[in-house]
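Researcher: For the annotation table, I need structure tokens for Cleavage and polyadenylation specificity factor subunit 2. Please keep the output clean. Sequence:
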Amino acid sequence: MGTSVQVTPLCGVYSENPLSYVVSIDGFNFLVDCGWSDHFDPSLLQPLSRVASTIDAVLLSYPDTMHLGALAYAMKQFGLSAPVYATEPVYRLGLLTMYDHYLSRKQVSEFDLFTLDDIDAAFQNVTRLTYSQNYHLSDKGEGIVIAPHVAGHLLGGTVWKITKDGEDVIYAVDFNHRKERHLNGTVLESFVRPAVLITDAYNALNNQPSRRQRDHEFLDTIMKTLRADGKVLLPVDTAGRVLELILILEQHWAQHHLTYPIFFLTYVSSSTIEFVKSFLEWMNDSIAKSFEHTRDNAFLLKHVSLLINKSELEKVPEGPKIVLASMASLEAGFSHDIFAEWATDPKNLVLFTERGQFGTLARMLQADPPPKAVKITLSQRVPLVGEELAAYEEEQKRKKEETLKASLVKEEEVNTGSDPNLGDPMVIDSRETRTLSDAGAAASGGYKDILIDGFAPPPTSMAPMFPFFENSAAWDDFGEVINPDDYMIKEEHMEQASMQGPGDLNGKLEEGSASLMLDTTPSKVVSTELTVQVKCSLVYMDFEGRSDGRSIKSILAHVAPLKLVLVHGSAEATEHLKQHCLKHVCPHVYAPQIGETIDVTSDLCAYKVQLSEKLMSNVLFKKLGDYEIAWVDAEVGKTESGMLSLLPVSAPAPPHKSVLVGDIKMSDFKQFLASKGIQAEFSGGALRCGEFVTLRKVGDPSQKGGGAGSQQIVIEGPLSEEYYKIRDYLYSQFYLL
């Protein structure tokens, strides 16, 4: 049998809940994504708690809570200790996303599911990989290779390719085939006939307008509100799709010389943009090339101001403005409070750019028709004063005294049990005495202090002395001899200390957020419930950056996996895509329930064979681009050690027919013919060459039974000198084997 593959969903099937799945490859358990919703409901993680201790590696796809939100909690509470793999942007931006969520929650509640230290501890286990980097696992995972590939959607977003014994398992969710302002499209279509493809049905029922039409409607809606003296609130994520929105606004403001203020408000906004500036190589080709040639960084923002505190926004003069504030769900964060303030004004606009998570305020407001009023809880953290502060300090003092008393009792018990002589207050242990000749050993740290408990020496004892060590440093004509290395080390430590800030972010965390993290001022949360009359405009536009239903179906047909597993999507969308794929993609389509383990092991038998030296010495290779290929005629035998081996055939090998290897684009061949003086043009899906010869591709490109060779180029026309000349030119574009 082939490589054993099992898939077990832990969350996020037949629903829009967070994504979390176990993929087992020959007994090696991958946890692919570890998501949590903005509600941070621990009940969602019960399936994960049962298998966390069996996980051997964690793969993260995107830097948002839906894909990595539960990582810190799982490591703290469930004993998840496996190594984590992600791209650099997913690691950095995911860390900032979790910081932002923690700070947003901590400001309005006694949030205790995880702390900043828990977040740091979880992300310290992350191994960062680059796109297309083959990472070979060791020990239990020997023989397994993992590689991240471009997914689109979010910066650093990943399609994971897991390979063992020549069989590929592809995990591709939330991918985007479209090239955007800051991201390239996915490379999923470059994979052909993988053994297993795991993908989602989230957008299976949705179709999208063209990017130009969508952007025009987006900017037109915003400008109408601003010109009517209204304010625009865009609830956004911390460091994901908001980057695309910022570039759209930044470019439009620059082109039209607009002066309406734009603010990006999160607890980590400055850090987010600072990191993004250094991730240009992870963005689309135009941004990277622009920086190479002109040193122009697309995220050197001139029209978008970065804020980390709502008080800074309140200082801005009244008037039309745009605020991009976290969280997109409106469950917490700055967007929650700003919505409560702005929703009552008919001139204002709340523009949603992604579907709200199920059960959130954003999802409620996106209903058709939207509610006319919503109940909201406004909370804020205020310092303790008066009697409350005194009671808090008294409680802290009492806890400290109890802790100190407990430690003294414990120390006394240890000392009493270790040496009976310590009951006498002035008995000096002979092991602690030192002679003057021992003074030279002081530099080596061999001395222990003499501890005396009491002040009245017994008559039989010598008077105790404080430890005294003679300074044995070397001197020369210029004074004491010093070691310069000691001072060099101190300077390095000082530089590191000055560069590092809270949370291992290399000093890139803004001062305001750092002060919030380090603030120990006694405080409490004060909450008020109010009913908000929703009079402002509510608009939803799809800027999620995911492929739509039609594109998903086309891509799946092109990839043509041997077995397909569908996850993450509503029940209706999942069933719709499942039925479509059964008819048009492959006969083996699975849509498992939570906790259901499905076996998607390949039906093909895989064997390892050794290429014998006698066989390879007679093989003639031919150059094919960056590769070398050859015909191999052999028969299977066994070596002395019992391993299968390919040996030369005993009888003469039959002759081989000539094979043309390669593929060309008709547009490229048209240009080639033009360079040879032959006029060619496209007509009715075919390439007309000269007066009488026509070239056309036939065959279904989605049928991958024979690889790309299932498409053929047919030459039509009367036999003539022109016909043979064009045929020779066509053959020259291929490799003859």
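Researcher: And a one-line annotation?
Model: Residues 382 and 523 are 5 Å apart (CA to CA).
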